Amino acid sequence: MSASTVLERTAPLYQRVKSVIPPIEWPVFADDVEAILELKKTRNAVILAHNYMTPEIFHCVADIVGDSLALAREAMKVDAEVIVLAGVHFMAETAKMLNPSKKVLIPDLEAGCSLAASITAADVRLMREKFPGRPVVTYVNSSAAVKAESDICCTSGNAKKIVESLGVPEVIMLPDEYLAQNIAAQTKVKVIAWAGHCEVHERFTPAEVRALRTDHPGVIILAHPECPPDVIAEADYTGSTADMSNYVGREKPARVVLLTECSMADNVSVNHPDVNFVKPCNLCPHMKRITLPKIRRALETMTHEVTIPAELMDPARRSVERMLAAS
Ligand code: 13P
Ligand code: SF4
Known about the structure:
CATH class of the largest domain: Alpha Beta
Number of domains: 3
Order of helices and strands: HHEHEHEHEHEHEHEHEHEHEHEHEHH
CATH architecture of the largest domain: 3-Layer(aba) Sandwich
Radius of gyration: 20 Å
CATH topology of the largest domain: Rossmann fold
CATH superfamily of the largest domain: NadA-like
Bound molecules: 1,3-dihydroxyacetonephosphate, iron/sulfur cluster
């Protein structure tokens, strides 16, 4: 297909993202977008994309978008033969656990997560020995091996609910120390934390938040609960990536800051042209490994397939299913 035909065919898609992608950049994306749309049909595939994907992925080739909780829920319902997970490895593993008969592909196997890398299954066993009798609540940002050692999972969107659903005075909450501390501040349940951190959200500081308020009077500041507690204390609202997006849609603040990964504000701003987004942000190097050319290649070559060792499959899935039942 000629370049001009591709541009013509993808023009309606460009209209969606023209506020965040300059016209000069679109021809670089158009060919891959067109090829991916065709490949999805021939491979009977759907693309699940996290809110941190860049706009040309999020708005132009994804079939389902959302936070970790939404992607897990939607993965269960997929009928197509192939799921391409445009996100990080633990998200692809979760999709595979919840819909094991599907082929789950991740466009880059190195798309990890500093939280998932901060803890092993052996660490979870040691925590149980050290704090016997406390249920282990594990953030979905973790490996299948860690989930398999856990009692129940949680996401940033349901953590408080999950912790309180257990009806116990104290829980172990792994591996995000700041999420654990932020939840502990909202509940009577005592929370024993692990010292894992998100390398993206741990970089925000209270001084940065105060400077934003001075520089942008009246700005509303939304923060992800992986941010340190002293940052959360300075913010106007805290929630998962989906919660932040919904807040903007519901409250329509005149001016807003999202203390989270860079692509988030771009993606949300596309749907809310009347809201002024101030865009300080930190890039997630793992999420940014996922690109249009790699998604295209994943569908062309049917790689990289995500598998879970048979002995981990049932126990890991149980932890995720308990979460879905409790939320
Ligand atoms: P959400 O579940 O809020 O989308 O968070 C996932 C994540 O990786 C945040 O850094
Ligand atoms: Fe992990 Fe943080 Fe990247 Fe999310 S933003 S995938 S928690 S490193």
